[in-house]
Amino acid sequence: MGRLLSINVGLPRDVTWQDRTVHTGIWKTPVEGPRMVRRLNIDGDGQGDLAGHGGEHRAVLVYQHDSYRYWQNQLGRTDFAYGQFGENFTVDGLSDAEVCIGDRYRVGGALFEVTQPRVTCYRAGIRMNEPEMAALLVKHGRPGFYFRVLEEGEVEAGDEITRVASGPERMSVVEIDALLYKPGHLRDQLERALRIPALSAGWRSSFEALLKQERKDGTTTGNAGLTTASGPPPAWRGFRPLRVSRKVRESSNVISLVLEPADGQPVAAALPGQFVVLRVGPDSAPALMRSYSLSGEPGAAYYRVSVKREAHGAVSTYVDDELQVGDIVHTSAARGSFTLRPGDTPAVLLSAGIGVTPVLAMLHALAAEASTREIWWLYGTRSSREHPFAAETRGLLAALPHRHSHICYSSPDPKDRPNVDFDSVGHLDMRVLQKLNLPRNDDFYICGPSSFMSDLTAGLAASGVAPDRIHTEIFGAGPSITPGVAAGPRRPPHLPEGLPGSGALVSFARSGLSVRWVPTFHSLLELAEACDVPVRWSCRTGVCHACETALVAGTIGYRPDPVDAPADGNVLICCSQPEGDVVVDL
Q: What is the spatial distance between Cα 135 and Cα 133, in angstroms, rounded to a whole number?
């Protein structure tokens, strides 16, 4: 039996943090008298970031008075007040080691069910004025937990807390928390957790991802439970010298490079849709770095990348004008999560301009396996002069029994032949897709200019296509994922202020920036932020997995390293520094 010591509520507010504005509801203050607990929260309470907090399975946050005493000793603090940790219920008893997922408790006139550990995030550090507080809550096994409201009713400080039912499998909050965030994800433990009906959907999907990730020998690499699928780990660290064996003109403004290993050893076969990072440039100038999707057939003999010449593009101009057959191009291993899903689900390959390259690799893979799927090849460009791989794609499509094709030219030349070179005049947009009457249960793979992808993504979703059926690839750096932080102007990625470093070379793949490590930074994340590299983190100092995004190698909490990290991938991010040259997928 436990006791409710305090009910704490608070509405979201804007606070200043690191020269940014954060919208957060973590400030809670005690209230007197009875309060009505409803399905989504307590009267007078609210959350600032509903993606990571709140909702039916996270209606009431519970934290223990015993943990208050623990942190006072650990941190040497005497200034704590109820609500200090952002909790709604401060309780006596109900330790994280004893409370199990699925347990049900009667408090006053309400009935509750335990659904998940608290997912701590950077805002706990803001509230506590302890930057590493969110990670410490997990490291020390004191996260707290969430209640789901099964029966609404009034509660009041002083009410007894009585367990009325025990959850199946008897897995404690601490066990569940460690199973996701710490090394060692045993299959039998994951299966036990998934047998608990009360476990919230987010945690359930994370454990399902970990089960799928398990290798045949019973161990795992990284932590698929905390990220979107990112494909297998890169086949080598940093960059490897590849030799240009061919340069092929694909259209008026696109040229392909065929890259073969300089040492004669095979490259690792890439998944269709993945990209590599090239480091090029004359010996007399600083190296330039860009990421390019692989555009060729699957295999381990060579890589093919295709580069569009841009009006003021330093790398594309160098590749077109100066790079010669026989030259060495330093190349990363293939990486990226925009890949063709296996199976027999119909696939719609949508692209515009140079965005054709990753979906062309997918088309090669489908043709190589003589796929019997329904395949839609939809492409938009200006005219035949800017239509790369036209003959190549026609040949690949001819080998597929259930293929469909539609080509849009926005500004066809007089010699371009309707129904031969192209099918319609105009841009490839939702109007075209609606006329084609594509099935809604297909997998849609979209790559092209940002407006093209955002318009099609929104249009497909509005037409009833499920979000997990829509896959997109962004050329260059993606947007930052910073929940609760108000948007503001950002500088382009740049070298950090101060004297240049002399340590390991850190290459931000999508941002085209290479920086020597400076020991004044505590982590790769700090370096990225100092360079204004858009960082796809769900929480600055914590272990929040609400956004489930791939982060910098060795970022916060126990995360999979989507780049050149140690094989186990389980690194406590806040103290991670590069031990050698690394390529970071940012």
A: 6
Helix (H) or strand (E) holding 66: helix 65-75
**C-alpha to C-alpha distance for 421 and 407, rounded to whole angstroms:** 8
Q: Which long-range contacts (CB under 8 A, 24 or more apart) does 252-256 make?
A: 252/385, 252/386, 253/308, 253/309, 253/386, 254/306, 254/307, 254/308, 254/309, 254/354, 254/386, 254/388, 255/306, 255/307, 255/309, 255/319, 255/320, 256/295, 256/304, 256/305, 256/306, 256/307
pLDDT in tens, 370-404: 999 999 999 999 999 999 999 999 999 999 999 99
pLDDT at 467 (0 to 100): 83
Lowest mean pLDDT among 51-60, 71-80, 190-199, 340-349: 51-60
Question: What SS3 class is residue 424?
Answer: strand
The contacts found for 448-453 with CB under 8 angstroms, 24 or more apart, are 448/350, 448/351, 448/352, 448/353, 448/355, 448/380, 449/352, 449/353, 449/355, 450/474, 452/352, 452/355, 452/380, 452/427, 452/428, 453/355
Beta bridge partners of 424: 408
Look at residue 528 in the predicted model and tell me its pLDDT.
Answer: 76
| Residue 350, pLDDT score | 97
**Degrees, nearest 5: CA angle 303-306-307:** 135
Dihedral sign of CA atoms 465, 468, 469, 471 in order: positive
Please, what is the average pLDDT of the chain? 83
8 Å CB contact between 32 and 8: no
Cα 211 from chain centroid (whole Å): 19
User: Does the pTM of the predicted model rise above 0.70?
Assistant: no
What sign results for the dihedral spanned by CA atoms 526, 528, 532, 535? negative
Query: What pLDDT does 265 receive?
Result: 86
CB contact at 8 A, 141 and 560: no
Closest by CA to 196, choosing from 176, 226, 223, is 176
